[in-house]
Amino acid sequence: MSALYDFLPVPPKGNDESGSHLYPKLRPYKTVSFDELTEKIASHSGLTKGNILAVMEEIEYWTKQLLSDGYRVQIGNIGTVSASLKADAEVYDKEDIHAQSIRFDKVKMTVSKQFSKQCSGKVLRAPSGKKFRQSSCTYTEEERLALLQSYLESHDYITRAEYGALTGLLKYKAWQDLDKWVKAHLIDIKGRAPHRVYVKRKD
């Protein structure tokens, strides 16, 4: 089986809603569940599902323990897992904050170059029935919120047009999403139309 791809527009910068160039993006068939993955491993390796699950539980346990102790953890040849910290308030002077105000925030994986190079294969242009569509059917509401929150982790703000390009939504539906999440206190809003932007909500 070959991987499928289609093209999406690169999100415009700022409030520029003019057309932009396209970039290729994989069109996943579906998410393979961990149960399905263990079945594939069992049939390929001869290991029992029980053994595979036991090993996975140990990897999860020790990864959690070591991250909590301040280590980075290498997961096979896939990559390295590390944890980040967060201060409960903005810090301007390192002497003004106490250890109680610092806590663990997110865990991320940095994929190794070796593994990235091994993930290669034949790609085909997605047929018409599997192309990305400019509609709310491309992602579920939960997936769209996750995309938005991930985007705001690495960007100071997002515009309505950028959110539409990110999620494949048309103008009105994109605005509905953003307005709903502002009212739910999941994101914040700054400025006024046509210069309105949406930002990460501060805890």
Automatic annotation (TrEMBL):
SUPFAM superfamilies: IHF-like DNA-binding proteins. The keyword DNA-binding applies. One of its GO terms (molecular function) is DNA binding. Keywords: DNA-binding. Residues 1-122 form the HU domain. InterPro entries: HU-HIG, IHF-like_DNA-bd_dom_sf. The keyword DNA-binding applies. This is HU domain-containing protein. It comes from Phocaeicola salanitronis (strain DSM 18170 / JCM 13657 / CCUG 60908 / BL78) (Bacteroides salanitronis).
